[in-house]
């Protein structure tokens, strides 16, 4: 089967600093990839390259057989992106914002309105659909961002910490949306620090540390003797087991 996303020897430098050191990944249609790693590992940099926001990289990235550098517009139309935080146009209402985003993707007004209303209803935001978003909580804005990332019904969905600020009910809804998208054979690239959710929703987990992939497999294949959770696998593979000692030092410092 042809991979829907193919990444070869991906490298990215910021000045002298190499933040991606040769990433190789083939992702197949219908897979949910949990892309995890410590702070600063290079997750968001990978995501920004995938969605076409960062063009200045080395290596090859192709999406549905199209080279990212050569066909950036058609690649963008196949991808839906949900960021953790985005500059949302706060003076707009959700309907105005979604209409703006939908038109950028070439959807017609009627389709935008129908989809937006139905999607906002799922998140309990229908009654706020004509309210300016500068009055919205962080979670309400996040629900609008999720809706806007999926509105054009993309084949590939890239989620960068999408649960940020969401309440428990909304987290359940988003987890269900992710598994429903998989049933529709969508491919999901899911970047998060919430190990319990990644463990539950991902078919395959890719762990990146200091710009290199250090583990790639299913949750059960990554388990070693004694591991029960993805959190434990993460700690073992990234060498962060000594957290207890660090916390003591943090608290002791307050006593000085
Ligand atoms: N615009 C930039 N200029 C310079 N360095 C950057 C820039 N963006 C990111 N970096 C550096 O690149 C490295 C990788 O950052 P990146 O945001 O990809 O990490 P991450 O894995 O997403 O981290 P987090 O989990 O904290 O979000 C970090 O060392 C970061 O300081």
UniProtKB/TrEMBL annotation:
Residue ranges of every copy of the ABC transporter domain listed in the record: 5-235
TM helices/strands, residue ranges: none
Pfam families: ABC_tran
Record keywords, A-Z: ATP-binding, Nucleotide-binding
MF terms in GO: ATP binding
CDD domains attached to this UniProt entry: ABC_DR_subfamily_A
InterPro entries: AAA+_ATPase, ABC_transporter-like_ATP-bd, P-loop_NTPase
Domain of life where this protein originates: Bacteria
PANTHER family: ABC TRANSPORTER, ATP-BINDING PROTEIN
Protein name: ABC transporter ATP-binding protein
Organism of this sequence: Chitinophaga chungangae
